[in-house]
Amino acid sequence: MAYSQARLKILPSVRWLAPHRPVELRSKLVDDKGVVFRASAQYKADGAGLVDVCRSPSLGGSYRGVEPMGLFWSMAPDTPHSKLQKKTVLSPTVVELEALNGETGELLATGTNERGYMTEGMKRIPLQEGRLRGVLFIPPGKGPFPGIVDLYTFGGGLSEPRASLLAGKGFAVLALAYLRYQDLPKHPENLDLEYFEEAVTYLRTRPEVAGPGIGIISISHSGAIALSMSSFLSGISATVCINFCNANTVIPLHYQDMVFPPLEAEMENVKFTDSGLIDIRDALADPTSGKNRASLIPIERATCQFLFAVAEDDHNWNSAFFTKQAAATLRNHGKESFQVVSYPKAGHFLEFPHMPYCPSGFHGAVGSVVLFGGEPKAHSEAQLDLWERVQAFFKSHLQGHEKILFEYFCF
């Protein structure tokens, strides 16, 4: 993840250890729901009594090899099937660090790492205008800035971290809620695309936002919403869809006199892992087949640029299959206005970099814990790569990008 160095307290090395002796490093954080996440790694001090995680390999524990950020991305929850929750960005995420004698367990050193989200001068503006609910982030400095609507998952509520971090890169970002937030319905009978149209209009008319078009970033369930916005609404220039379905799912989607029913599930394709987890990867029907086409989003109507990101081991659904269909639809209509980036061994929740990986968790539509897929190291590498690609994509396709300063820091 890219953070300002001024916002971080870094403990990249441990000094004054006994030369060539084993050392254990530990990390711990408590998320907004009180769930504890931990990681540990075994190191061997060099001849000068130093362990430098940027150079020294971990010999065991939560990860192996030279992994400067291993103590962060490899953290796992004490409570199984928990996804790290960070809803508000008004406070940093604090990671506690410890160094222990690898033979006796004696505590040798402690430190903290603060992952800040709000840069100095950034504005955080809660949105309650008409029926719109969300938070708008305005970068510091003189605008106008390229604008982005940030849509999150079916889990609902509002997630601010990604939006605030993009704002720190020079984008004006509206983190938009669409269910289970404040007075928005918890279980809506349908979703109205007009709601999202109002959000686009709101963002485009803000004086801090450069025109003429804006961007959209989406993941999971909101991917179909982003596709629909791009297909029917004006003023969309660039859309990112991460692990999406090219058809509407779960809740009927309405726009004017059109209704897109949710894609049907084929329950015979639901499987169970050896550990008893539900695997719904192949549960959704083919949206291009027969009556299922009523759920298909007509993305051939879109005039924007697309970035499709695919985790090949996504078990929430078959993202690779749906992405291939979306790309084929555009290509069959003479459009090459898309990029596809694919990540082997990555799972469903591709977030910003160095977030603890979530292999399984509660699924709101299923009502139970399901498998999300992926392997920790590959997933972490995918998040890091995608984060930079997303910024470059918006920089390339949104007006006002010449005002963006891209600075990358390793922490």
Report what the structure shows:
The chain is globular. The chain starts with 12 loop residues before the first strand and ends in a 14-residue tail after the last helix. Strand 11, helix 2 and strand 12 form a beta-alpha-beta unit. The N terminus and C terminus are likely disordered. The protein is built from six helices and 23 strands. An eight-stranded mixed β-sheet has the order 9-10-12-11-14-15-20-21, with helices on both faces. Strands 2, 3, 5, 6, 7 and 8 form a six-stranded antiparallel β-sheet that branches. The chain folds into two domains: 103 residues, Acyl-CoA thioester hydrolase/BAAT N-terminal domain (Immunoglobulin-like); 276 residues, Alpha/Beta hydrolase fold, catalytic domain (Rossmann fold, 3-Layer(aba) Sandwich). Helix content is 17%, strand content 29%. The chain has 411 residues and is an alpha/beta fold.
Short description:
This protein has six helices and 23 strands.
Observed structural traits:
about 400 residues; alpha/beta; Immunoglobulin-like; Rossmann fold; 2 domains; eight-stranded mixed β-sheet; six-stranded antiparallel β-sheet; 6 helices; about 30% strand; globular; disordered N terminus; disordered C terminus; Thio_Ohase/BAAT_N; fatty acyl-CoA hydrolase activity; Acyl-CoA thioesterase 21; Thio_Ohase/aa_AcTrfase
